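Summary for the lay section of the report: proteins are chains of building blocks that fold into shapes. Here we show the chain for Aldehyde dehydrogenase domain-containing protein and then a coded description of the shape we predicted for it.
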Amino acid sequence: MPTHAKLRVFSLGEVEVPVGIFINNEWVEASSSETFSTTNPATGEKSLDFAHASKEDVDKAVKAARKAFKTTWGNNIQATKRAAVLFKLADLMERDTERLAALESITTGKGIRMVRTTELADSIACLRYYAGLADKLHGQTITSFGKEKFVYTVHQPIGVCGQIIPWNDPIMMWAWKVAPALAAGCTLVLKPSELTPLTALLMCDLAKEAGIPAGVLNTLPGFGSTTGDAIARHMNIDKVAFTGSVVTGRRISIAAAESNLKKVNLELGGKSPILVFDSADVEEAANWTALAIWFNSGQYCCAGSRVYIQEGVYEKFITALKQRAEACAIGQPHDEKTSFGPLICETQRDKVLNYIVSGKEAGARVVTGGEKWPQSNGGFWIEPTILADTTPDMRVVKEEIFGPVIVAAPFSTEEQAVELANDTTYGLAAAVFTNDTRQVARVTSALDAGTVWCNQYAFVHPSVPFGGFKQSGTGPELGTYGMEAYMQVKAVHQNLTQRMKWPM
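The coded shape description reads as follows.
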């Protein structure tokens, strides 16, 4: 439970971040003076206390956001001015890359090089993409009514939006949510994960420096069950966007429906399949599959956590993947060589270990890994793990583990491969490895997933939509679709010659 403490500042070298709440471009204490603590995943030690935003604080933030939407943002300024602010914010992020990378690495346990070259680079690119798109989405003119009337559509920002971001990619998920919403003209009440709020708080000062007006971006750390629920249920929030688990996504949908029926965007979990056919380049496919599951220690929604290999190359592929697992650059977050860090917390580590035990008890073969990293020293590492010879009824095959564990099984025919891949309640991503171009077309068409990679994995781009089928979410992010998700369409009928007689 939260404890009571005064607002204070976190310092890392020259980096200072107030660990309070940010409303109307001002740092303030939580109304209740409550705090919650975070843990360093590389040491297991307590890290920081953060202000815990209450329902009252959410209400204050919403009022500030509504005022800004009606006065200094939204349709009150030119889209090119919104674009200029986003471009400036991207420049400031680029200027402060080292500071942001250091904070992100400390709070998530990721290798600092990985944060700098992937997460931060992608976040900056996302801001610049939406800055460039801000004045380029337009309505339609509908000229099919002859001389009777002229009809056109207008794209307008939805209004005040609540955003709830996860702990696994904090700064990138911040950019994916904030950039399209601000480009569209919305104002925001954002809650970072209670496990990783630090970089979202630092971004508040950068946003203010970039020239984002007061009330446009408000950031409130807190628990999902309190702060998040208050956002989802607030009667004056027009939309809520969430990235996280299916369980929490359901709760948010219910809260939105029970309040003002606000619009909801959900990017949820996955159990993404990888299909490796006999014709594939086994060594290349093993490289991409290793990236698919061991990037960010398996802690990302579209991780390729199920791999199905055609019988002709099954053992050869398993051997190649084992070599990649044992070559992972496991280490401390501050080490430039590290690409495989700890899991986010003790609870997550123990959950993953329990899944591994479950798989072994159900008959899966442990090819490699399956244990805590011997050099963990209080941190939350788990070795890169391969469970082979799995069957569709196993928990490790059916449920999202969200850790560095991949399950593997053979298949004989293309039809069987597609059936195995689609045998899941999720539908976020998938991949196909084959050198048969006709097979690529057949299989990608048959897979139930929002993103399908062919002979690669995990690479995304701000211009390409990303979203899930089935229980993996509602509504894509990124691309023009991601900005349209923060806009609503108004149809305007302009009468030219039509007359109305009464009574009809």
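Put simply, here is one thing we learned. The longest strand covers residues 149-157.
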